[in-house]
Design a protein that fits this description.
Elements lengths: L25 H9 L10 E7 L2 E9 L3 E8 L12 E2 L5 E7 L6 E8 L5 E4 L15 E2 L10 H10 L7 E5 L1 H4 L12 H15 L3 E4 L3 E2 L12 E5 L6 H13 L3 E6 L25 H4 E2 L4 E2 L6 H18 L3 E4 L2 H5 L21 H17 L4 E4 L21 E3 L1 H11 L11 H4 L10 E5 L11 H4 L4 H17 L3 E5 L24 H19 L13 E5 L7 E6 L6 E8 L5 E8 L4 E7 L15 E3 L10 E7 L3 E8 L1
Parallel strand pairs: 9-10, 9-20, 10-13, 13-16, 16-17, 17-18, 18-19, 19-20
Antiparallel strand pairs: 1-2, 2-5, 3-6, 4-5, 6-7, 6-8, 11-12, 14-15, 21-22, 22-23, 23-28, 24-27, 25-26, 25-28
Helix pairs in contact: 1-7, 4-5, 7-9, 13-14
Length: 650
């Protein structure tokens, strides 16, 4: 791509910046301009260091259309004439060493462009920390931290493998729990660490997934309108405070996934947009560079230095924060040029199609780079269409993600659960359709934040019927989710049957746990995670054929489903039977694969969960009466609006 040559800055008075050309090697500049530099953050941005025994900070910024670039900050009285930067060859980078600039001081880049009349002060695209919004300056920061999570990192590959039990608790940090005294502020990274770890361990989740922790000007965007791709949001503390939180979770055997947003970025003036007087990070044509749904800018994935910026951001969070996975937001919006656009509002690719070739190439490069350097982590795609092979290797034409969110399952399941039980017999395919495509990808089953906001209400209110049926329906929904193939993800608050829609500026309603019915939901989630973890058949073949088989999915009249879960080598089997009506079904016979005694290991109608205690007295014996293609069968008493899991072995 053609690049505007960098120009030596116009001379200014009182220059005290020291040139530091050796900071950049030829290989650094080549890889950056080529688009394959995955650690550009080590060279660009602000780095406290020493030169010739003098303490200071090295600054570097990419602004190829700049005419004069200077650093302004606390250390020079925000005087644009004191510390101009020098152009580094024809790379488009401007750099210099400023003696005395130190950790904790605020700064920006003063940009005077070749574009006539364009002058602005910009935050550092590679900055590690910012002022608390609405202030917007970057902060010079030393990223040193003494980690204590070596034991977890040494074992995380096995804990995140496709045959491992992966169960994810999705968290918006600012509203999970707030102080209980005015002004009811969000808890800080360090303050929340023991509380969150204790809750997650009590529930049995293996991972926490944080909504974006990258810096964002508007709290109400939940972090998805990003400005600081290398800056942990300062709302909850310093970078070291976030490191402490992740370190603490690791020491308590909890993995950490972060949401990452390379699909679009915020339009705030201090950020990436129109950075050097040109459309540097974004496409210039609004048909390509402006997102109509979110009022944000779209990255120009065809520009090499933008690719280096995004690759480096992803690698930075793995390198510096020890995260265990990256969930890429809004992948569909990256893949399709016509995403959320009408005819005439988008520009076809070079072949006349709607596929964003540059974005596809970037995503493949991103995944290849991640798995090459960190084979023990995972990447996750929030991809809402039927794009093929999202979670398949790049060498066979896939995008290379480790997992894909099964958005279709989420919408079909919630649609079914919202229907009156009397009508469910006409919609049973909503539940069974998934198994026609269940092994096309490696799936995560999500009940995510997007389903409990914007007027959609809490999961509790999506359940049909009166209050008793809503609680029973929620328990049944969770059992169905944990019984199906695929890894699990549940948004915070759903484990306590939150009764109101999620609000980003309020705490979860923890007082609900004063009520037995809400404690019952949390107890059930804990037991589901325990069964999922302790029974190999429930997770070993989550995303491989052979791990799941319908026993009977055709009893639409009774709205009953039954299935069997299998492992790799174990002789044990777990059979799930789900009754989606409020009717007790006595003497309900289903086929089972094994003889002998079948122990009831879960009944969502148990009194400890808030149910009516209808069940099978701990288990049933199989008879040598073939049924449903199985060599044996059992009689069961199916509780109303409930799931029963029974366990047997050969």
């Amino acid at each position: 791509m053609a690049r505007t040559p960098a120009v030596v800055p116009t001379p200014k008075a009182a220059v005290t910046t020291t040139a530091i050309a050796p900071w950049f090697g030829d290989q650094d500049l080549f890889l950056f301009n080529e688009g394959n530099y995955s650690r550009a953050y080590e060279k660009l941005g602000a780095h406290p260091t020493t030169q010739n025994g003098v303490a200071g900070t090295h600054f570097a910024v990419w602004a190829p259309s700049g005419k004069y670039i200077a650093v302004v900050g606390d250390f020079n009285g925000w005087d644009k004439s004191k510390h101009p930067l020098a152009a580094v060859g024809s790379s488009g980078i401007w750099a210099g060493f400023i003696p005395g600039a130190k950790h904790g001081e605020c700064y920006k880049y003063h940009v005077e462009s070749h574009v006539a009349g364009y002058t602005i002060d910009k935050a550092d695209p590679y900055g590690y920390l910012t002022e608390v919004p609405p202030k917007s300056a970057s902060v010079v920061w030393d990223m040193s931290y003494e980690w204590k999570d070596q034991e977890y990192l040494a074992t995380r590959k096995a804990k995140q493998a496709h045959d491992a039990p992966v169960s994810i608790y999705e968290v918006h940090l600012g509203s999970w729990m707030r102080s209980d005294t005015p002004p009811y502020h969000s808890l800080g990274y360090r303050e929340i660490a023991p509380k969150l770890a204790d809750h997650v361990n009590r529930l049995g989740f293996t991972h926490v997934e944080f909504l974006p922790l990258t810096e964002h000007p508007f709290f109400g965007s939940w972090g998805y309108q990003t400005t600081g791709y290398f800056a942990a949001t300062c709302r909850y503390g310093t970078p070291q405070d976030l490191m402490y939180l992740i370190d603490y979770l690791h020491q308590h055997d909890i993995g950490v996934i972060i949401d990452w947003v390379p699909s679009h970025f915020a339009t705030d003036g201090h950020g990436l947009c129109y950075f050097d007087g040109t459309h540097l990070y974004e496409h210039g044509d609004p048909k390509q560079g402006y997102h109509p749904d979110w009022g944000s800018y779209v990255f120009n994935y065809g520009r090499h230095e933008v690719r280096s910026f995004l690759l480096s951001s992803a690698m930075f969070w793995l390198d510096k924060y020890h995260i265990d996975g990256i969930r890429v937001d809004a992948v569909a919006s990256m893949l399709y040029l016509d995403y959320s656009r009408k005819n005439g509002e988008w520009i076809p690719n070079a072949h006349g199609g709607k596929e964003n070739i540059e974005a596809i190439d970037f995503l493949r490069t991103f995944n290849k780079e991640i798995y090459t350097q960190y084979p023990d982590v995972q990447t996750y795609a929030e991809e809402s269409t039927s794009w093929a092979m999202v979670s398949r290797p790049t060498y066979i034409g896939g995008l290379g993600f480790g997992y894909k969110w099964d958005m279709g399952w989420m919408h079909d399941t919630l649609s079914y659960c919202s229907k009156d039980p009397i009508h469910r017999k006409f919609h049973q395919n909503d539940l069974t359709f998934r198994m026609l495509y269940a092994y096309h990808e490696s799936f995560i089953l999500p009940l995510s934040h997007d389903e409990v906001v914007h007027g959609k209400g809490p999961l509790f209110d999506k359940m049909a019927g009166d209050e008793w049926q809503k609680f029973a329906g929620l328990r049944l929904l969770y059992a169905y989710m944990w019984g199906m193939t695929g890894k699990k993800l549940l948004f915070m608050g759903c484990e306590i049957a939150q009764r109101q829609e999620w609000k980003h500026d309020s705490s979860l309603d923890w007082h609900l746990l004063e009520h037995e019915s809400h404690r019952g939901i949390m107890k059930l989630v804990s037991d589901l995670n325990r069964i999922y973890r302790d029974e190999p058949v429930m997770h070993e073949l989550d995303n491989q054929p052979g791990g799941f088989e319908w026993i009977d999915c055709t009893d639409v009249g009774a709205s009953v489903l039954s299935f069997v879960r299998k492992g790799k080598t174990t002789k044990e089997r777990v059979v799930g039977i789900l009754n989606f009506t409020p009717i007790v079904r006595d003497h309900y016979r289903i086929g089972v694969p094994c003889p002998g005694y079948w122990k009831e290991i879960l009944n969502t109608d148990a009194g400890i969960y808030g149910g009516s205690n209808t069940g099978n007295s701990g288990g049933v014996h199989a008879e040598m009466l073939p049924m449903h293609g199985q060599p044996y069968s059992v009689f069961l008493r199916l509780p109303p609006m409930a799931a029963v899991f029974i366990k047997g072995q050969f």
